[in-house]
């Protein structure tokens, strides 16, 4: 069993694979102030449910990368593979500075290529990323504030607005504060997704390009979109698994 880890700014996603598919996954809040020993105490009970013999990590939070790498070496005697320089990804980066491309986006591209030769990936995480990949080549992306960040910024800067639950509003024009916020943030995000997809389709000249969505809020936002979008919950981990396979020693 292989342990796949995607470290994001808000959450860490752990996935276990038999080399064919993602068998089980769980999320854990990203904590930048924890040592490797503290992380071990927090996640040991979940890790011990599975017999894994190797680890690969995709991360955009270096301090957590270091803690997890030390954890698996100290407690499991495993030298974790880290997506970065020296690791084969199978994805070419046609951008101004390849070193600035996050490991999560490379994994998203790798995962998208499982499903189609050309795709737009909408990753609804801490940031909302619109990624364009074709024939194993990443051609760039657009990055917007994530849904949660937008909501928190609004609440923190408006004294009379309350926090609210992320759920689908019944209509656009609402009649109470909670429903008004849900409409504006949730439906507004769905409209942004649709609008960006339409613009990307126009720019690449392909209205039939596959559109895939992943990230923690994809299940809430995608059903409200007008474009045809396939939700792939484990897309980043699936891409990470493909990268792991490319780096196996013969």
How would you sum up this structure, described in words?
The chain is of the alpha/beta class and 250 residues long. It folds into two domains: 2-82, ATPase, nucleotide binding domain (Nucleotidyltransferase, domain 5); 92-239, ATPase, nucleotide binding domain (Nucleotidyltransferase, domain 5), CATH 3.30.420.40. 38% of the residues lie in helices and 25% in strands. It contains seven helices and eleven strands. The protein has a six-stranded mixed β-sheet with strand order 6-9-8-7-10-11, with helices on both faces. A five-stranded mixed β-sheet has the order 3-2-1-4-5, with helices on both faces. Strand 4, helix 2 (62-76) and strand 5 form a beta-alpha-beta unit. Helix 3 crosses helix 7. The mean pLDDT is 93.
| Number of distinct beta strands | 11
Give the name of the CATH superfamily of the largest domain: ATPase, nucleotide binding domain
For this structure, the CATH topology of the largest domain is: Nucleotidyltransferase, domain 5
CA-to-CA gap between the ends? 18 Å
Order of helices and strands: EEEHEHEEHEEEHHEHEH
Q: Into which percent range does the helicity of residues fall?
A: 25-40%
Mean pLDDT: 93
Output the CATH class name of the largest domain. Answer: Alpha Beta
**What form results from the Cα inertia axes?**
globular
In quaternary terms, these chains amount to: single chain
Biggest sheet layout: 6 strands, mixed
The structure class reads: alpha/beta
Strand content: 15-25%
């Amino acid at each position: 069993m292989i342990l796949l880890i995607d470290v994001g700014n808000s959450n860490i996603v752990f996935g276990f694979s038999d080399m064919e598919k993602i068998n089980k996954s769980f999320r854990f809040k990203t904590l930048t102030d924890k040592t490797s020993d503290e992380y071990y105490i927090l996640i040991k009970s979940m890790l011990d449910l599975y017999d894994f013999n190797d680890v690969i990590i995709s991360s955009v939070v270096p301090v957590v990368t270091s803690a997890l790498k030390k954890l698996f070496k100290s407690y499991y005697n495993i030298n974790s593979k880290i997506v970065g320089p020296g690791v084969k990804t199978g994805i070419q980066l046609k951008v101004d500075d390849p070193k600035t491309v996050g490991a999560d986006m490379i994994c998203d591209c790798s995962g998208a290529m499982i499903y189609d030769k050309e795709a737009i990936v909408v990753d609804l995480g801490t940031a909302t990323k619109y990624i364009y990949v074709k024939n194993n080549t990443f051609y760039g992306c657009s990055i917007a504030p994530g849904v949660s960040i937008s909501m928190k910024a609004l609440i923190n800067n408006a004294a009379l607005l309350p926090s609210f639950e992320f759920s689908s509003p019944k209509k656009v024009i609402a009649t109470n504060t909670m429903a008004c916020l849900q409409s504006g943030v949730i439906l507004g995000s769905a409209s942004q997704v649709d609008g960006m997809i339409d613009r990307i389709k126009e720019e690449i000249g392909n209205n039939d390009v596959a559109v895939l969505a992943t990230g923690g809020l994809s299940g809430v936002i995608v059903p409200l979109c007008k474009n045809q979008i396939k939700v792939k919950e484990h897309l980043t981990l699936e891409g990470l698994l493909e990268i792991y396979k490319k780096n196996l020693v013969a």
